[in-house]
Amino acid sequence: MGKQRNLVRALGMGYVVIFVVANIIGSGVYKKIAPMAAELHSSIWILVAWIVGGIITLFGALSNAEVAGLLADTGGEFIYLKKIYNRFFAFMYGWSLFTVIQTATISSLAYVFAQSLNSIIHIPGIFSSLQHFTIGGVFFPFQDFGVKLTAILLILILTGLNISGLKSGAGVSRVIMLLVFSGLLMIVIFGLGSIKTRPAGFINFKELTAGTVTISAFYTAMLAAFWAYQGWVSVGFIGGEVKDPTLNIPRGIVAGVFIVIFIYLIVNVTYLTLLSIPQLVHIHESGNQIAAVEAVRTFWGRGGVLFISLLILVTTLGCTNASILTGARPYYAMAREKLFFSGIAKINNANVPSNSLMWQGLWASILVLSGTFDQLTDMIIFAVFIFYGATTLGVFILRRRMPDAHRPYKVWGYPYVPAIFILFCIGLFFNTIIARPREAAIGLILIFSGIPVYFLLKRLNSRIMSEDATSY
């Protein structure tokens, strides 16, 4: 055991940086500028939203790193919350992963994959006569049904591959990251090099003091930014596996997040020099376009559309597969601890949790039908920040409960950094309820639906234990 721990502790700061960057950059860098433009109507405020979103992300990651360092040997977020609070709250987190956070992430990534494929090969409309069919005036399952069906097929195919035991290796992930970096670099170089005239109102600093952007609109725009920054929490899984974690974890997180902030800023500056705010708003309202595709179209034409669409296909394919592969494991772990349905804990002949993968894939497919990409990601961020805030609150709880425990890393700027992050989570929670009531309501319903499930499972397990004791 000690030998394995020493091996893991040999990982240096460079690994932490790569881990942070690789787990953050995904579909958001290609698409999320459009909904931000629809909220803010200002290029300078869009860039400010990216910067503030990055700083808040950094505060959350640093706070999470202290909890991860303290509880590093016990597992991920599910175990952290169980240790900080109780089995019920940990179950609610795991249930939220299943009902909205992880499954909607899979749905969103698959949806962007299908949209990008549609940019290369037009996906014919299916059941077009039913596109206005609605469930309660909230869900339009047959709207863009051809694209949605393609996303569902991707989810089911990748789920089937993972059930069979087929897994993508680390080498493939590195190749995908290299392709993503190379593609984004080419967009920046050729995009900025092709500019002859900039759109009207491009990065006008006077707009910062004009009072045209409300706090609510800024918060709502950052729902989009936070989706692009989503993934930093994964650093918790290596909290106890880094050499000299007191220095390397915080430095690696800071370096990784700042690298991502820089990449997002320069890429989005490129988008803003190629596309005007009205064009970005139109892209958002169309519902089936991707900002990066339209930006590249302006200087490379049809060939550029093919290039960026293939890049997005590769990026989202890798991210979707990784999300399916890793997402099924928490439900399996919950079932092993009798905090989920017992059948989810079964392992097939390929030594993978096949039932967990299957149910995850089926629910993620249903979520594809429930809404658009932006609706899904707003639901994810709303739900996940509840638990991010709870984990950060754990910094204060554990400092009080375990004052003498060894902490390989203590959050910089304590108590201000975690306090600011918690306050921001609270603000995001209430603003989403006001600005995005539909997404917030659906998210809360899915989260709270876990309450009766928890007590049902508790009752069933008590009955089984009672019957076992009687038979014994």
Q: What is CATH's topology name? A: Amino acid/polyamine transporter I
Backbone CA Rg:
22 Å
Instruction: Please work out how many helical segments DSSP would assign.
Output: 18
Secondary structure category: mainly alpha
Q: For this structure, what is the CATH class?
A: Mainly Alpha
> Termini distance?
36 Å
Which sheet architecture does the biggest sheet show? Answer: none
What is the number of E strands? 0
| CATH 4th-level superfamily | Amino acid/polyamine transporter I
Question: What form results from the Cα inertia axes?
Answer: globular
The ordered string of helix (H) and strand (E) elements is HHHHHHHHHHHHHHHHHH
Multimeric state of these chains?
A: single chain
Bin the helical content. Answer: over 70%
Mean pLDDT: 83
Poorly predicted regions are 1-8
Quote the beta fraction: under 5%
> Can you tell me the CATH architecture?
Up-down Bundle
Keywords:
single chain; about 475 residues; mainly alpha; Amino acid/polyamine transporter I; disordered N terminus
